[in-house]
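Review session, final week

We close the course with one last complete record, chosen because it touches almost every idea we covered. It is D-serine deaminase-like pyridoxal phosphate-dependent protein, a protein from Pseudogracilibacillus auburnensis with 367 residues. Go through it on your own first, then we will talk.
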Amino acid sequence: MNDFLSTIDTPALLLDLNKMDANIKDIVRFAENAGVNLRPHLKTHKSIKIARCLLEAGAIGVTVAKVGEAEVMVAGGINDILIAFPVAQRTKLARVKKLQEKAKITVAVDSMEQATLLHEFFKNGEPLNVWIKVNSGLNRVGVEPNEEVVELAKHINNLTALCLNGIFTHAGHSYAATSPEQIEKIANEEAETVLKSVKLCEEAGINIKHRSIGSTPTFKIAGAIKGITEIRPGNAVFYDMIQVGLGIATQKQCALTVLASVVSKKSDRMVIDAGSKTLALDQGAHGNSSITGHGYIIGYPELVIERLSEEHGIIPLKHEVDLKLNDRITIIPNHACVVANLFDTYLVYQNGKVIDEWKVDARGKLK
């Protein structure tokens, strides 16, 4: 174990700055080579400092899931934000209107009813930028890439308070892929969904400037297809065991880990101070089946965090291990996005030394 880990109170969220920087450089290099813009999703890290790292590296703006996340980022000086969520409640729209005074805000739209509500709310002020979200197979939000997308585009085009300038999708079902071939197929369908939707809209006389795809497992495939103009990976800044299981990343690329301590050791089990309120219960977003247990213990691949209660992680012992009370273990989370949201701060370290502590600024901003 690194000596500096022995002085850290646990459980703690550790961020390896060298690995994160390498991941960011890799994303930016791909975007530059593919000739696409980078608008990373911040739901993974929820950090103003990490957002600035991405912008300084070459990102043109950021993506968020919630208005609350957008408010945090605007307060942090970030001025180009896509809210990739179909916002329609008046209380949220009032907050979006305030954000427009300080930043360029774009809102996802996936129905004529929502578009009409947005128009009514913004008709006496600055027009609102909107992007249509299309469904590329995740079957969550989004219109279908057929006449449905054209009907919505025509409807928006007739609403003077809205400015339609983008179509986007998110192939989140790639997280459930079982082979590289399946990921490639999903990625191609992701890009095709956007490009088909754009073509249909432009045949109807509606120009679409931005053609955006997301999803860490697919962005290097879909983002390389001619006609796509933007990528929105989120998890790729950290990576995690889901990405490792998919073959998208290696364990050595995982920049985010959880440090935990042994709090009890019995003949048949060991207990750590990292339970569901630390590691989360997510063993695989959208059905990924490559995951064993609740995180990977570095240096002890034979140990499995088999079950979690709120504050306890239980590891069955089938043979003796060289871990005793108060010893530390380092865990790569299954799903970095939900784990980061459980902590107040990242302990940032570099070359075996803690160099800073960064806030998880938008933690808990669910509204």
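Two points worth writing down before the exam:
The two ends are 40 Å apart (CA to CA).
The chain has a mean pLDDT of 96.
Good luck, everyone.
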